[in-house]
Amino acid sequence: MFDHVTLMTLDSHDTTASAICWTLYNLARHEHYQEKCRQEVMDLIEGRDGQEIQEDLSNLPFTTMCIKESLRLHSPVQAVTRSYTQDMVLPGNRTVPAGTICLVSIYGTHHNPTVWTNPHEYDPQRFDPSNKKSQTSHAFIPFSSGPRNCIGQKFAMVELRVVVALTLLRFRLTPGVNPELGSSRVLFNFQSHHFRSCRGCAAEYQH
Ligand code: HEM
């Protein structure tokens, strides 16, 4: 019971927090994507009331592409392990004996150049639905896969969209420098926007 509660509360927090941070970091480093996401959020909220907006925050296709690309490039969980319950014959006639513990590298899969072109580049277009057919089903596994995959993945994606959308409405993200890490290590700054609301919805927005 203790393990389950710990998993649901603590592990789900730091994975989501890490995903939010990396998404904001990547948007700070790629201003044109940041602006495109912001525009998408503003288009969504224009002329609508709060309840409608909440329901529709899950409908942000480009922002979702940016979040997924962050989950690919900077996966909060780097690897998962599985124990073979039976002998497994692999291509090349090699057998993994039952009882072996196998580590599946999420980082390795997401950075494998045979799976992803220019894997170290931040390119949200990879997740354009029109490119989905060219991806294999296990190329993108930030939430793992199979019967013990993440039960919170849909909730996490909603959380991510809401936090990223509301942050972009209020702040412009710019790359910054952490003096303790040196100039080569870029963090990001939040610059506040003046944000006016119009008849209960956020329709006007100023730089
Ligand atoms: C971006 C956020 C998240 C990421 C990247 C993530 C990733 C993962 C991964 C990779 C696993 C599989 C571990 C394994 O196969 O051994 C997992 C399992 C799990 N996750 Fe998440 N997770 C996230 C958010 C959440 C949230 C928000 C919740 C709950 C509300 C949650 C609850 C769980 C639970 C309960 C399991 C265990 C499932 C099982 O063992 O059957 N996760 N998560």
TrEMBL record:
Heme binds at residue 150. Its cofactor is heme. InterPro entries: Cyt_P450, Cyt_P450_CS, Cyt_P450_E_grp-IV, Cyt_P450_sf, Cytochrome_P450_Monoox. GO terms for molecular function: aromatase activity; heme binding; iron ion binding. It comes from the Eukaryota. Keywords: Heme, Iron, Metal-binding, Monooxygenase, Oxidoreductase. It catalyses: androst-4-ene-3,17-dione + 3 reduced [NADPH--hemoprotein reductase] + 3 O2 = estrone + formate + 3 oxidized [NADPH--hemoprotein reductase] + 4 H2O + 4 H(+); testosterone + 3 reduced [NADPH--hemoprotein reductase] + 3 O2 = 17beta-estradiol + formate + 3 oxidized [NADPH--hemoprotein reductase] + 4 H2O + 4 H(+). It holds the Pfam family p450. PROSITE patterns: CYTOCHROME_P450. Catalyzes the formation of aromatic C18 estrogens from C19 androgens. Belongs to the cytochrome P450 family. This is Cytochrome P450 family 4 subfamily F member 8. It comes from Haplochromis burtoni (Burton's mouthbrooder).
